[in-house]
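Re: Re: token formats

Sure, here are both.
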Amino acid sequence: MKKNLLLLVAICLLAACTKSTPQYLEMPSWARNNAMPVTLNDENMIGKDSFLLYINDYFPALDGVDSVVVNDGYHATVNGDGTLTLTRQGEQKQYSVMRFHRGSEHADVAITPAIDMHVNLFTTAATENSFSFRTINDGHYTFCYFIDNENIELKDFAPDDNGTYSLPIPPLSKGRHFARVFATDGTSRTNDLLIPLEGSKPVTDAAQLTRHDHEAQVLYSLMIDRFCNGNTANDQPLNSPEVLPIVDYMGGDIKGVTQKIQEGFFDSLGINTIWISPVTQNPLDAWGYYPFKKNADGTYNNKYDPTKAYTKFSGYHGYWPIYTTRLDHRFATDAEMREMLDVAHKHDINVILDYVANHVHINSPTLREHPDWVTDSIAPDGLPNFERWDDFRLTTWFDKHIPTLDLERAEVCDNMTDSALYWIANYDLDGFRHDACKHIPLQYWRMFGHKMAQRFPERDLWMIGETYGSEALIGSYVKTGMLNAQFDFNIYHTAIDALAQRPGHSMKDILDQVLSSQQAYGAHHTMGNISGNHDKARFISLAGGALQWDEDPYKEAGWTRNVTVADSAKGYQRSLLLEVLNLTIPGVPCIYQGDEYAETGANDPDNRHMMRFEGYNSYEQIHRKWVKDIIKLRHANLALTYGEFIPLMESEEVIAYMRKYMDQVVIVVLNNSMQRFETDIYVPPFTLPHNIDKVFVSVGPMDNQLIII
């Protein structure tokens, strides 16, 4: 950008707002959390230029509003049933702002224009009560500036002679606030900026962050029964001849989780949020059925016991609730659950609970009392409605013994949202991981978010969901009044395909998908970036060649042979590349238990072996140390939590990108090839100090390089 270039800037202002920035800016109690911008798409379109929006999607605590005023390009009509109709007046290529009025109070929400996003903004510096940023490319920009949920009026806003923009921060109360910047150049929108504030001062030291800063989380997923046995007195395996030991209870419990927190396991690794599997009461007997193929000699293709023709399953995993508000005695007593949460919080660790709303076990007392509360097990096409994940996603049953609840019925939805909130009311949990979100209608999430915001307005609760599908489907549940985030399975599948060299896939795909996710969910989303989970084969076994692509989904492999790592050199190196990726791209990294040392295995149940805390081989020791060191770097460097994501280069086998927050910069290079990669990588002007325009990188085969500036 030339030194004396002055960009013409059009400021996005509220026509209805004539007052200047308040002397002391304070948000209404019903608008404390940043409202995610409005996205207009097929989901909410009701006419060519008309859209139906739910007020609770943006401010869930509200029962209604007096009026909604839009500054430019739209007209809003409040319908009186908790919705509003937004009418678009012509093509919109810049951000607009909706102001929600309730009595003497108001709060604002940005409306995202339906144009593509390109990375173009980056922060440069911060002072006591201001921050500055630049654009990568020259152009005519329109800006919207928010402090929390207040659109700030700007006058005579322009860059200085060096092309740097500076924004003042108004006086704010103590505690965490956020500055947000949205911009367009008339043809595309830029990445948004998110600056955490402590009072009116930008946060510039990672030590200022706490476990309540959602973007700074490092999540650890554990299956209680398979983690640590802290209380052998509650061990109660079925010990049934119909149930193989691998799918029976193994003794892990909440006391074991507490024990590992006290021993410093999570502190040492750098974990500040634990996701525990469901704790609700599951059946005391065996259910389900898995048959094994019969061999020519009369035995069965069953590595655990070739004499067994089939196995049934216990509910060790917790996903077959009998009672939705009762602790399973095999996992914890009330006192043990409270103790675990208390100990976790003393170690500055959040705990989120896995909750199942989609179904209950067929023997649930709820279904005995209300047998009509379930969906039809026969689909409209006359075929069985089992595992029809996409064509009948809101009604399909997962299995014959766990019927899907008809959550489109108000009384069922009301009952299940109350059951979920029982856990918040009775335990000091920090949020939820929600199971099978795409199989649950949106009205459930709206009711749940509304109740939670009204009943627990002071609780800082974070919720992440599980949905497999398109970005549009996943994003339809990610709203201020529904879920904070979902797991980004699109990044996960793209990454493992590229890193494990699935034919037809390359490293370029990863960079493209990361940018696509930013376009879909915002540049500073808290979507979960997973290393794996309890429904996926262990990546190390895929990367190391013990599993082949044509075996997908890898369940039979786990029943029939010992799945380890065929090529340790390749497997562990590429497994580490996945961990580095997850820990350095936007979003919340999530480590599935054992992935920190690269546990092996095929799919369920071979990916659910008992956790190991010692006895690691040399590869596992190195892998765990690297993961631990990168988590430490993430916690120490704001660029990896609140930094802009700037792509630098891509090829079939190598990608490089920059994370930048103010003057903190981390450059990440991932080399998936079998050769050393050396080159100069050019960076956008002014992103590095002293006008440095390139950096030299030298990365070994299947290795990574992190450059900290």
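Second one below.
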Amino acid sequence: MYTNDLYDSGYSARVKKIRQNQLSALYENADKYDIEKPSIQKTKLDNLFIESSNTRTVRDDSITRFRSFSETVRNCLVVEALYKMYSNAMDPVLKADQTNRSIMRKIVTEYVNENGYNIILANMRKASVPMCEMYNVINNSINSILEDCDQTNPDTFVIKNEDKDQFFNDLDCTNTEDVEEAISDRVSNAMADFINTNNKDHEEITNTLKNAQEKIDTVTSADDGEDNDEEDNTTPDGNVQESYQGLARARINKIRTTPKGVFHSMVSALSESVLKHEDMHNEFMTEGHLDMDKIVDRTRIMYTFMEMLNTSRLDRVDEAFISEAIMNLSK
């Protein structure tokens, strides 16, 4: 049978060679005809790919930085709003001290960082009308600040002074005065209860010791007045004296361990912590003794923040919350 395989094979080879010669001639005159050689085309494509990748990397980095800036803005505005309400409810004498203001800001910042601004905003929105107003101010400020940013230009990731001014002006227009006044009143009541309870306990302890000593003196005087002979030479009954002293100690222990208010428990916990930690001695001890004025002031700062969360309904300040706070003080 006749076949044309060899013919076809030879023909294909000749065609392929002719095309190669034509391409070679064409590329030799590439400059004349403004045609790019394959190597040049590949280089340009590689450069285009690199340039595209770099652009994409820069854009992705900018978007990442914008997201970080957005988180910072939200966190910052929540801290500032809570700190403002906290400061307004704080005792004027305490907040006049720069150290106390720094402590207050640290307390607020740590609370926001630990709980998350998103959770706080969600609680704020449904807590009460004044807190909802505060939420709206924060949310509007966030939107205003971020809308002015170009996500591809990190130089625009700033909070402008006019945005800050507008934010604080809007906060001043919220109806939080009643909440702040209620916080202040409750803290003052807790302070008054602490002082009254302390004075009452001190008076009871003093009377208990005095009564015990009077009874011991009575027994001693009775023994001294008796006629004793050599066969019955008695002395003051030591057992009776120890008994009166034991009853006094039991009474004093009962007074001291009787459940007190939260403020009192916080003062006690902080006092114990100061005694256990030498690094706290310089701040809270004077000449080897507890400086109760400083301890009470620090307690009042922390208690006011807890009362703010409670009164504003931003958080559930229940027994577990209070126990944890007291435990942290005693560490």
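Residues 1-8, 229-236 have pLDDT under 50 and may be disordered. The chain has two domains: 59-175, 179-221+236-330.
- S.
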